[in-house]
Amino acid sequence: MVRRRDRARGFTLVEVIVVLVILAILAAIAIPALTGYITTAQERACQVNISGLRRELMAEEIYQTGGQGKLTSPELQQIADVSDFVCAQGGPYKVSRSAGGDVRIQCVVHNISSFGFDMAGALSGLFENGDSELQTVLKNFTAMNKHIDSSSPNGTNVKKVVAALKKQGFDMEGEGVNTWSYQGQGSGRYILYWTTENIADYQVGQSMRVMRYNSNLGTYTAGYVTVGTETLEGQSYKVLSYNTGWQEYTATPQTDSDKKNFDTISGVFEKMPDAP
């Protein structure tokens, strides 16, 4: 009797199809996630380059004008066009200067703007991880309803805030934050305003576009604040009149959900005109 050899059993068509379907499902899940990680990394690298370009532009402006003037949008763009700070994906950086003097940088590929600094988030870190002296200063200003202004003639506390943020890796100058005001509201609450525009370029009574953070609500809002004056130690200086001069920007709706997201509101800020 002749025995027949058992042949190795292959995959059936149904089994092959099942495997292919499973692989397709896994690919559908993994590829978008991987693409998202790559995109996020590219955007973060682009934001770092934009910050570096801003520092280069400001340094070149000081060099060319002796610190006594401002370069025009075309002049700034010429510097950006030959800068080593470029988008890795080949997108050009568009540079412009607003009527208020604010320098804006935008990546055409990623649609990332130059205003990506969450000062409120950085300050929250100072409350939790900052040096004890600065924590005491901020808490005292909060409890006593006092305010710290970047334009204050007594810059001791201003320098402490800037230095502490920089120690944590948050460089306000590099991010283009030229004006800010920390307003204590009592009971551990505060309101923070910050902007890329320089209050020195504005007249009293004019409005500046700003980012606003309300610690009590945990919300960000883009809007305008009127420039006013105060006197400290016999010196008059310009301040953001937050008590009477705040106006939310309404041309672009800012929902309650939007206001919980810094990136969303900073995008609104970038598109705002210089004055209401």
From TrEMBL:
Matching Pfam families: N_methyl
Highest taxon of the lineage: Bacteria
Xref: InterPro entries: N_methyl_site (IPR012902), Pilin-like (IPR045584)
Entry annotated with the keyword Membrane: yes
Membrane-crossing segments per the record: 12-38
Entry keyword set: Membrane, Transmembrane, Transmembrane helix
SUPFAM superfamilies in alphabetical order: Pili subunits
Name of protein: Prepilin-type N-terminal cleavage/methylation domain-containing protein
